[in-house]
Design brief:
alpha+beta; single chain; 119 residues; 4-stranded antiparallel sheet; 28% helix; EC 4.1.2.25; GTP Cyclohydrolase I, domain 2
């Protein structure tokens, strides 16, 4: 079956994440890169958004999962995002999520975790 890839590059948000004392007191920026392979089951009709997976819904699910509660580890958060996407969007056959903390270290652009999963 043909697929279409939807992707997000450096979706930026503030989240409550981490185990260090200063991380428990305040939010910090996260950058999220994500790719989703979606089954193409029908022809795209330019005037009908329901003929495609609306990427606004994917973005909303990512933002909600990342901002809903404090999470200690990036590994946990990344797994939760992938689990939610696969649970809520049956069209998604493959998901890759990379979540990074751009302010974690002063000597690199970011540190993060990437998880990928397919059905």
């Amino acid at each position: 079956m043909p697929t279409r890839r939807i992707f997000f590059t450096q979706l930026a948000l503030d989240a409550r994440i981490g185990i260090l004392e200063h991380e428990l007191r305040a939010t910090q920026p996260l950058h999220i890169d994500a790719e989703f392979d979606v089954d193409v089951t029908q022809e795209v009709h330019d005037q009908n958004i329901s003929t495609v997976l609306d990427y606004r819904l994917l973005r909303n699910a990512i933002v909600d999962e990342c901002t809903r509660a404090h999470v200690n580890l990036l590994e946990t958060l990344t797994e939760r995002v992938v689990d939610r996407i696969l649970a809520e969007f049956a069209q998604v056959q493959f998901a890759r999520i990379r979540i990074s903390k751009p302010l974690a270290f002063s000597d690199c652009a970011a540190v993060g975790i990437e998880v990928q999963r397919s059905r």
